[in-house]
Design a protein that fits this description.
2 domains; 10 helices; 47% helix
Length: 250
């Protein structure tokens, strides 16, 4: 069956931190907290992120407060003086929130725009499903992603996260609601591309979508588990186009 809709994850799929996140955090921390070891910041950031995702899923209804908690725990875990941090956190948090709301914090991958344009030229719709907060809307605008990349479905806005099939259902319903003269798109006519095995690959499959796991060489993050041989893997977005060409009924 022909693919009519391709949805993409955002972070590590269409966009990537302009510099590693722990490096950007350490640079912002330094004027307030003194130099902190970037490796310690990196380790502490991942611990803080995991903790907050477990304690307050979907950003706990307040992404600014959620990220402030991540920033605080990251700095403390990396060795910051608690008293100094308490005095300066209200200055540090807005700086990091602003940086990661624009091209200051992120850049697009070299293949992102060319593949989106190639899909558009083939008459295939493209959209986003991401476990991100609403700042990603300003990031995509600042990076000049095309207006036809719609809808942008974000977990903070919807109150549900991947791998729940519900967030993919929301996406497909919005796409179908916007169709004018075409027949509705079925889940079997959808492909989702993302870098996380559980959230992206298995989440999309649970909603009836086809799925491709994006495993870019040299990525600044590691897969959560060994990739089973049965999983369809792409190493860049051009391989997504190759996969689609190989499908029956193309």
């Amino acid at each position: 069956m022909k693919i009519r809709l391709v949805s993409f994850d955002l972070l590590h799929t269409l966009i990537t931190p302009r510099y590693p996140i722990h490096v950007q955090y350490a640079r912002v921390f330094e004027p307030y907290l003194g130099p902190l070891n970037p490796d310690a910041v990196r380790s502490s950031f991942h611990v803080a992120l995991k903790q907050l995702r477990a304690e307050k899923p979907v950003y706990g209804n307040d992404s600014s407060s959620w990220w402030s908690d991540v920033i605080q725990r990251t700095a403390l875990g990396a060795g910051a003086d608690p008293k100094v941090l308490n005095r300066t956190l209200s200055s540090i948090t807005p700086r990091l929130m602003k940086a990661f709301s624009s091209r200051e914090g992120y850049e697009e991958f070299d293949d992102s725009l060319s593949v989106l344009n190639a899909l558009k030229d083939q008459g295939i719709r493209t959209a986003v499903v991401s476990n991100a907060d609403a700042r990603m809307l300003s990031v995509l605008e600042d990076l000049e992603f095309p207006p036809y990349l719609r809808p942008i479905v974000l977990s903070e806005t919807e109150g549900v996260e991947k791998p729940s099939p519900e967030i993919f259902d929301i996406l497909l319903q919005r796409v179908n609601d916007a169709l004018e003269s075409e027949p509705p798109i079925s889940p079997a006519e959808c492909l989702h591309v993302g870098d996380e095995l559980t959230c992206d690959y298995y989440g999309a499959e649970s909603a009836g979508f086809h799925a491709l796991l994006l495993d870019r060489p040299g990525a600044d993050h590691q897969q959560e588990a060994t990739i089973p041989e049965s999983v369809n893997v792409a190493h860049d977005l051009h391989e997504v186009l190759n996969w689609m060409r190989a499908q029956p009924g193309r």
